[in-house]
Design brief:
four-stranded mixed beta sheet, 14 strands, about 475 residues, eight-stranded mixed beta sheet, Inosine-uridine Nucleoside N-ribohydrolase, Chain A, about 30% helix, Immunoglobulin-like
């Protein structure tokens, strides 16, 4: 019998063991704030939202899940209210696995629900099932710009306004697995009730990542003026960060399908969540890149879409509707550039998930390396100002693995789109320490180096650290 969450609360004491100090779980950084808008539905109709919801639960210690909002998408208009039960089922299975997940962080307590509701969560904290259930809400049940207005408010849109009004300077990352119609309604309501200055301040908090445009049923997918997404891009072009992905989700779908045997072997049947992980149909977890984009692993700052991360790469350009602009990757050469990294990261992304599902099943496993550069811990970029011709030394020798696995290092440069050759020479890229001279040609430019660190566990888990050098 699986121990209940209430039994877990009885067992766990309000302390952390010494081992937890050695793990990334109780790092000082706060989690990124996340709102998901999903058209989750029966798995025989479309399983990928359920798959992505399961992966999200396996990373509940890495994101402050502010809301999971059920809403319309390509599969339905209107959204049937009883489909929300499929999200409820995922949270129930998370509850069954929670004792095992908590072992990963050596987590010994859960905050009372009142504190969970009002306290920023630090990286490593696994939220209670009651907290997640309180954040599972119904959003807009109809699609398109035509329904936005006076009669379209919902639990979801009201919660979004409440979150945006909170006295919290952190941005909120909105992940549109289906339609972003609920967010559009919240912004419409704010536009009616707030001053222009107040609205701008609120919009600056929003980071929206859409998996293509799903604010319509599949048959209307080419009618982009039907979508409320176009209205958001047009009306709030100067204030709203809007990422329109047309690369990462396609690769996730196809690479997942091509490697389905790995999902069947290492995800399905592992823990309670794995027991309901559905067989793929059109693709695997096409919505997952929306939160991979803001995965706090040291690779990228998700507020800068041009820092390549697990959710791809995006540049500000004309969007696929040929009318509005967005941060997007549908056009060349940007699509090929993003595609290259998405394929490069795929194995590490999958292995990271598989390692977490081992924790779900067994309550033990391996955790990610901790990358320390020039004595600086954390996941924030290491920022350096330097002069052309100056010698730079970057030392990651103090990096470590919580399970004391041997570490492998690789330093590489994120070069600009269209530039295949690195701008600096790294004579020992596989060493924990690199030493190089900044060429005179880089004067006035910015250099992005990545320190990629794998452990030698069976899953070869990875962590990163970005180094940004402003060359004077």
């Amino acid at each position: 019998m699986t121990p209940s969450y209430s039994f877990l609360l009885t067992l766990l004491m309000c302390c952390f063991s010494g081992t937890a100090q050695a793990r990334t779980a109780m790092a000082s950084e706060f989690k990124p704030r996340l709102v998901v808008m999903t058209d989750i539905c029966p798995a025989d109709l479309e399983p990928d939202d359920t798959e992505s919801a399961i992966r999200l639960m396996a990373y509940a210690d890495r994101f402050e899940i502010e809301a999971i909002i059920t809403t319309v998408g390509w599969n339905c208009d209107p959204y049937p209210a009883d489909w929300a039960k499929f999200l409820d089922n995922v949270i129930d299975k998370y509850e069954a696995d929670l004792m095992n997940f908590a072992q990963r962080s050596n987590q010994k307590f859960f905050y009372p629900i009142e504190k969970e509701q009002n306290k920023p969560q630090r990286l490593g904290y696994w939220p209670s099932p009651d907290y997640l259930r309180s954040r599972a809400l119904m959003g807009s049940q109809r699609a398109g710009i035509g329904v936005i207005g006076e009669d379209n408010d919902s639990e979801g849109s009201r919660k979004i306004i409440e979150l945006l009004d909170e006295d919290d300077s952190r941005p909120i990352f909105f992940c549109a697995w289906g339609s972003a119609n609920t967010l559009a309604q919240a912004i419409w309501r704010l536009k009616q009730e707030r001053s222009e200055e107040e609205l701008k301040k609120i919009l600056h908090k929003i980071r929206l990542y859409t998996i293509t445009d799903q604010d319509m049923v599949w048959a209307k997918r080419k009618e982009l003026d039907y979508s409320s997404h176009q209205w958001l891009r047009r009306e709030f072009a100067d204030d709203l960060t809007f990422i329109w992905d047309e690369s990462a989700w396609l690769n996730q779908n196809s690479l997942g399908s091509d490697n389905w045997d790995q999902y069947a072997r290492l995800i399905q049947g592992h823990g309670a969540l794995g027991s309901i992980y559905p067989k793929n149909k059109y693709g695997v977890e096409g919505d997952t890149p929306s939160f991979l984009h803001c995965m706090p692993n040291g690779l990228n700052d998700p507020s800068d879409p041009m820092q390549v991360g697990w959710g791809g790469y995006h540049e500000f350009a004309l969007s696929p509707d040929n009318m509005t602009k967005a941060w997007t990757n549908w056009h060349q050469p940007v699509k090929s550039y993003s595609d290259k990294f998405e394929k490069r990261f795929y194995t590490d992304i999958f292995n990271d998930f598989a390692a977490r599902m081992q924790w779900a099943a067994e309550g033990h496993g391996t955790t990610n390396p901790v990358v320390i550069i020039n004595g600086k811990k954390g996941i924030a970029p290491v920022c350096i100002k330097a002069k052309a011709g100056q010698r730079i030394k970057l030392n990651a020798r103090k990096s470590y693995d919580p399970e004391k696995e041997k570490l492998d290092f690789l330093w590489w440069e994120q070069t600009p789109v269209g530039e295949s050759a690195p701008s600096i020479d790294l004579p020992t890229p596989d060493s924990p320490v690199i030493d190089f001279i900044i060429p005179p040609t880089l004067s006035g430019k910015q250099l992005h180096l990545i320190c990629e660190v794998h452990d030698n566990s069976p899953f070869r888990l990875v962590s990163y650290r970005r180094v940004i050098i402003d060359v004077l």
